[in-house]
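Ticket opened by: R.M.
Priority: normal
Category: complex prediction / small molecule

The reporter submitted a protein together with pyridoxal-5'-phosphate and asked that the result be attached to this ticket for the collaborator who will pick it up next week. Submitted input follows.
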Amino acid sequence: MPDILNIRKEFPILEQQVHGKPLIYLDNAATTQKPRCVIDAISEAYTTINANVHRGVHYLSQKATEQFEEAREKVRSFINATHSHEIIFTRGTTEGINLLATSFGNTSLKKGDEVIISTMEHHSNIVPWQLLQQRIGINLRIVPLKEDTALDMDAYRSLFNNRTKLVSITHVSNVLGSTNPIKECIEIAHSHSVPVLVDAAQSIPHIKVDVSVLDADFLAFSGHKIYAPTGIGVLYGKEKWLNMMQPYHGGGEMIQSVRFEHTTFNELPYKFEAGTPDYVGAIALGKALDFVNSIGIETIAQHEQQLTKYALQQLKTIEKMRILGQPDSSAISFLVGDIHPADMGTLLDHLGIAIRTGHHCAQPLIDHLGIPGTVRASFAIYNSIEDIDILVEGIKRIARMFE
Ligand code: PLP
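Result attached by the on-call engineer:
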């Protein structure tokens, strides 16, 4: 068992009180808090090695470049990619998906081609494809959900035809906290020679994600959901696809030579990293992955799954509790009677409990469920059984006020 008390001490922000109550932070699906080692890594980078990467011959630039590329290698190893040049640093999941939609769209998609997504996607895995729909006239095909909110795999199978060019699907739903059979989704797509982008924003912090085992063609995630700073993320892509794709942004670093008549592009991964990258963010992401590795992602998964199981048991003891879907990961969405999620969120906040309410950037799913939104509690390695007891007690107290 991980020593949660000691792990928690690594997160300075968790020591504070809000509204006179100890902070219970259960909004980890939105963003995680940062351990001291990550905060220190940012400060240390700016204090000791700050210089623009790749372009300088001087000492600081070489040190910064070394650490930036070490961070890329840490990401490669963390997700078990074959090559570190398959790791592209982005601002986060959103930018990763937009990069793919634009670059893959420019290179490989034409009017009438189809992209498959699902009903439970985050807006960042819907809108980039809609923009492409407007720009070049692709069609979106949507995987429906079954009664129990699981992906309808029979319907998924039936969506493929010779116009299907890409599947882009979430690994774990940020609303339902359920894990999709992503390996099966990829196998089915590959049997039609269709590549797959995995939105791993909600899986990478909580379970082992191995792009080689999954045989994922692309995978996007955000650093800030796995204890790293905001503004840094990753798009993984198989070398063969990335080599085929056009650059996303134009500018410095992504070129080999620029003439007014003709420009040639840099090799991977720099072709997709125009401009000065967030090298300090990347270095801090590397530190965050060291932190996760020091505990072990399997240990984290086990702890968070225990928390989820316990939370489900306890929440179900509350009268008029409605749990949405089949949560098996680290997020649980629920409603209590007619209490509006926003009221529940505000009142829990007064008890020092931070949860999230609303549509969670997944309006089509919320519409499908026919609800105004949900209350979502989501867990990280520093959460404990006591946090859940306090949450459940808080909800009971609020429910009594509405009786
Ligand atoms: N995809 C999923 C499933 C998410 O939960 C989120 C954020 O909550 C995103 C994508 C977007 O992540 P970001 O805002 O860090 O780019």
